[in-house]
């Protein structure tokens, strides 16, 4: 069964940190581009960061550059999002996505991140 399962979300104070994880199963994880998206209430889903299959190349939305770091462990079929210096504007449901040419995208169910004092 093709599946992505996110974890690590929660409530954190402004300036705090969280590390999200996304565990993959049912497909060849190391062949897929992995991405993190987020969707805040009333807003469209937006791309936060992605990482190429080999892990050698990453990209970030301007709003998170210098604060978030995406990484992957192909041996563990897991992609991570380290989030530092969190701000209330980072509050959203965070989703991971797996994508590859000629294959359907795979989405996780999402994990809630709330930044509030």
Structure write-up:
The protein is mostly beta strands. Helices cover 0% and strands 50% of the residues. The chain has strands spanning 3-7, 10-12, 18-25, 33-39, 46-51, 58-60, 68-73, 78-83, 92-99, 106-107, 111-115. The strands form two sheets. Strands 2, 4, 5, 6, 9, 10 and 11 form a seven-stranded mixed beta sheet that branches. The protein has a four-stranded antiparallel beta sheet with strand order 1-3-8-7, with no helix packed on it. A hairpin with a 4-residue loop joins strand 7 (68-73) and strand 8. The protein starts with a strand and ends with a strand. The model has no long low-confidence stretch (mean pLDDT 96).
Short précis:
The chain is mainly β and 117 residues long.
Describe the secondary structure blueprint for this structure.
Blueprint: E1 3-7, E2 10-12, E3 18-25, E4 33-39, E5 46-51, E6 58-60, E7 68-73, E8 78-83, E9 92-99, E10 106-107, E11 111-115
Parallel strand pairs: 2-11
Antiparallel strand pairs: 1-3, 3-8, 4-5, 4-9, 5-6, 7-8, 9-10, 9-11
List its salient traits.
117 residues
Q: What letter string, H or E per element, gives the SSE order?
A: EEEEEEEEEEE
Helix content: under 10%
Strand content: over 45%
User: What coarse outline follows from CA principal-axis ratios?
Assistant: globular
Secondary-structure class: mainly beta
Secondary structure tally, helices = 0
Task: State the low-pLDDT regions, or none.
Answer: none
Largest sheet: 7 strands, mixed
Q: How far do the termini sit from each other?
A: 39 Å
Tally of DSSP β-strands: 11
Mean pLDDT across all amino acids: 96
The value of Rg in angstroms is 13 Å
């Amino acid at each position: 069964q093709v599946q992505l399962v996110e974890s690590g979300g929660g409530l954190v104070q402004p300036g705090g940190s969280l590390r999200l994880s996304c565990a993959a199963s049912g497909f060849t994880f190391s062949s897929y581009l992995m991405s993190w998206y987020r969707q805040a209430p009333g807003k469209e889903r937006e791309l936060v960061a992605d990482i190429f299959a080999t892990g050698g190349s990453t990209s970030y939305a301007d709003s998170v550059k210098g604060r978030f770091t995406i990484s992957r462990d192909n041996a563990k079929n897991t992609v991570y999002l380290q989030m530092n210096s969190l701000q209330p504007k980072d509050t959203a449901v965070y989703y991971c996505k797996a994508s590859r040419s000629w294959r359907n995208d795979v989405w996780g169910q999402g994990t809630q991140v709330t930044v509030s004092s």
